[in-house]
Design brief:
mainly alpha, two-stranded parallel ribbon, 3 helices, 4 strands, two-stranded antiparallel sheet, 8% strand, single chain, elongated, 106 residues
């Protein structure tokens, strides 16, 4: 599977649109009198939008091909994955900066 920076940017633009549509159109059946698994599941879906955006942001930030993350822009002349261990030999950790704000790489 090959990925490109333009695809990550497009996904980052699409995710908020899908998230807004989800929040506008989600319907949770049941009442507040009992444990509501439908509400719990809707909350998980809402969290997945944030996770998806963060994964796209992290993949876009990582200027290399590594493992299953083959970036078309980062390959050898023979078409093999081109790693960049000098700059990316770490585990990314992103800090939450508030609702609607961009996360920061910490």
């Amino acid at each position: 599977m090959a990925r490109r920076a333009e695809g990550w940017r497009r996904a980052l633009a699409d995710i908020p649109v899908l998230e807004e549509e989800f929040h506008r159109e989600v319907r949770v059946l049941g009442s507040g009198d009992d444990i509501n698994q439908a509400l719990e599941k809707a909350g998980r879906v809402a969290d997945f939008f944030e996770l998806a955006a963060l994964m796209c942001r992290d993949a876009l930030d990582r200027e290399e091909s590594c493992g299953g993350h083959f970036r078309v822009e980062h390959q050898t002349p023979e078409g093999e994955a081109l790693r960049n261990d000098d700059d990316y030999a770490y585990v990314s950790a992103w800090g939450f900066t508030g609702p609607g704000a961009e996360p920061t790489l910490v």
